[in-house]
Amino acid sequence: MGELLGRDIVSIHDLDLDEIAHILDVAATMVPAARGQEQRPLLHGRILAELFFEPSTRTRLSFESAMKRLAGQVINFGELSTTSVVKGETLADTVRMVESYSDVIVVRHPQEGAARLAADFTTKPVINGGDGAGQHPTQTLLDLFTITQRKGAIGGINVTIVGDLKYGRTVHSLAVALSRMGASLTFVSPASLAMPTEIVEACRNEYRKGNGGSVRMGSDLESFISAADVLYVTRIQKERFPDPEEYRKVANTYRVDVELLGRAKGSCIVMHPLPRVDEIDPAVDETEHAIYFDQAFNGVPVRMALLALLLGAIP
């Protein structure tokens, strides 16, 4: 396991399996503090800078909550329209300026590769809070944490991922991580929103190496639901489509409801990175399958763990 102090976390590939396991173990110890049941002032006097160039609710608020639960402080843009970005300031210059105000930087940006670029222009740790249709490593970590909490282990389980697999950066990171950890994967989507070939091949390579399980693909969720231990649902993201007409063709393709879950295992858990629109019936919220709000909470202890490790508060 490598040293996490001062590291950039731009992609889930920046972490080996031992490092992921260590982060998840530390996250488990952070849960009481994340709930406000105990004090963990590990980052008193440290400052997190949030550079969010696109909207966010859960990622932004959970990073802020994580830093403040550790007694640190947070600075951020506020409204993007009030910043020097509208004057034409480059991302590189923004990062160079912000590094003098903070100890760690979280970047969320609509362009894939922006977080890696930001990391190249600062010596401070940079965490990717989501870049375009690329990577979202802290979402992957909280998803892995949620699955291990509920299932005990990831090796040998079947995870069915449904929805927008082309533009859904959440599932790009998650699929490869799950495969590295021994899960079997089923990708369900319209043909036009299929998982990118390079992600599918990366997962199949893990299978060929004996690490991951099988990889299946299809468009009919009903034919796969009975085998799922985890059903990971994603929103078809209107904002990622260059052509509105293409979005209209696939909108509302899938809807998970109580009737569909009647064909699933009683132990099957339903996850969603949120926000949802119509892809999960609100009636599912009242079933034992639904854990997506617990999943959203898990962003706090996981990000607490990551911040504490990157800033050296925990070895």
Describe the protein in words.
The chain folds into two domains: 12-135 and 298-310, Aspartate/ornithine carbamoyltransferase (Rossmann fold); 137-296, Rossmann fold (3-Layer(aba) Sandwich), CATH 3.40.50.1370. Helices cover 36% and strands 14% of the residues. The chain is built from eleven helices and nine strands. A five-stranded parallel sheet has the order 7-6-5-8-9. Helix 2 (58-69) packs across helix 11 (299-310). The longest helix has 18 residues, at 17-34. The model has no long low-confidence stretch (mean pLDDT 91).
Strand order of the largest sheet: 7-6-5-8-9
* Proportion of residues in β-strands: 5-15%
Question: What value does the Rg take, in angstroms?
Answer: 19 Å
Task: Quickly name the level 1 CATH class of the largest domain.
Answer: Alpha Beta
Low-confidence stretches: none
How many domains comprise the coordinates? 2
Query: CATH topology of the largest domain, what is it called?
Result: Rossmann fold
Q: Please name the CATH architecture of the largest domain.
A: 3-Layer(aba) Sandwich
Distance between the termini: 11 Å
Taking the sheet with the most strands, its summary is:
5 strands, parallel
Query: What's the CATH superfamily of the largest domain, by name?
Result: Aspartate/ornithine carbamoyltransferase
In round numbers, the mean pLDDT is 91
Tally of helical runs? 11
Order of helices and strands: HEHEHEHEHEHEHEEHHEHH
The helical percent reads 25-40%
